[in-house]
Design brief:
The chain is mainly alpha-helical. It is built from 25 helices and no strands.
Amino acid sequence: MAKKNPLSDNEKRLNNLAREYESLRAQGESVYMEPDDLADLSLWYDNNHYPEKSDEVMDYALSMYPDSTMLQIEQAYRYLDKGDIDSAIILSNQIEDDDTGDLQLLKARLLIENEEYEKADALLNSFPPEDLDPIMVANMYMETHFPEKAIDWLKQHGQGLEEEEDYLSILMNAYCYTGKYEESIEICEKLIDKDPFSAHYWLSLCRCRLALKDYNKAMDACDFSITNDEDLGEAYLTRCNLYALLGNEKKAKENLQQAIKLRAVEPGEMNEMDLALLLDKEYVEDAIKLMNFYLKHIDFTEEQRINTYFRLGVCYAHMRWDKNAFDYFDKALALRPNDADVLTQKAVVYMSQNDFDAALGQLQLAVDHEPERNYLYRTMGILSLLKKRYDDFRRYSALSDEPLTEYEINEAIYMVESGDKVSINYLMDSMRNNLRY
C-alpha cells in the first residue's frame, strides 16, 4: 500500500503562515507578511473551504498594501468567483499598471464574461506571446469553459513547457472536458509517474476511467487517491458513486457520509460532476441508478428534488420508457406546477408517440407560463400543420420568434397535402431534436 502523501514544502509553508496569522490576529497584533504570502494564504483558506477566513485575509492584505497591483488583480478574480462581474470591472479599470500581462489577462476574462469573445481573443493576440504566461491563458480558457481554446493556446504558445506539470495538468483537464478520455488518461499517467503520491492525479484518472465505464479500474485509482490523502472529500464522494454503480449500497452510504463530513458536498446536494460524465457518454441506465441512490439517501432541497425528477424523466424518455418518463415529469410538476422545461419535455414524449394534441397542450401550458419562450410557437405551428389545422398553423407561425412568409406557409401546406413523407419525417425529427433537453 502506498504511503500517505507527506506535506509538500509549500503546504508546510502555508500551514505555518496560517498559524502565524491566526495567532497574531487573536492577540490583536498586526501581521507583517509580503503581499504574495497574503494572497497565497487567502487562496489556501478558500481551497480548504473557509471562505470567510479567505475574505478576511484578502481584506487585511489590501488594507496593508492598497496599491499592490497583484492584490488588486487577485481581488478582481475573487469578485468574479462570487459572480460579481460589475465590481471586478470597476476594480480592473482602477488599476493603473497597464503593462502587466496579468492585468490584460484579467481584462480578457472580463470580456469573455460579457460574451465579447472576439474582443477577448484580439486583446490576447495583440500582446507578444512572451508577455503572457501560456499556462495562465490556458487556465483562463478552462475557467470560462473553452477547453478547446485552452488546448490550442498550449500547443501554439507552450513550446518547451510540454513536460511541466502545470502544462500537463491543464491539458489533461481540457481533454477530459472535451470528452477525449483516452488522451486524458495518457497524460494523467504521465503526471502520476512524476508524482505518484498526488491524490488529485489519481482522482482525475479515476474520473476518466468512470467516464469510460471501466468502474473496477476507476475504483482502484480512487482507492489510491484516498490512500495518498485521507482527507480528500471529493475522492470519497466519487467512491460513493462507484459503489452505488456497482450495487454496493452499504459502502456507497459510508463514503457519502465521509464526503459530507469532509465538506466535499453539502447535505441536500449530490455529486454533479460524476453524474455529468455519465450523461455526457449517454450511460443512461447508470445515471438513473446513481440518481435513484441519491433520492433514497439524501434529504434533497425542493429545488434539487425537482431537478432530479426532471433529469430522471429525460433519461427514461431517452430509453423510450415513456410511462416512467411521465411519472417523473409529473412528480416534478407536483412540486412546481407549470415548469416550462418539464412541460416541454413531456411534449417531446407525446410527439414521439404521435399524440400531437397532447403535445400541443403541454407546449401551450409552457408558453402561457413563460411567454418569452415564443420559439415554442414554431413547434406548435408544425404540429398544427401535420394535423391539417392550417388556420392554427398560420396563427402560431405569426406568434413565433421566426414567422414564416406567405410563400413558406403555402409550400408547407402543399408538402402535407401532397403526402411528401420524406420531408415530413425530416421535419418531425428536426422538431423533436430541437426541443430535447
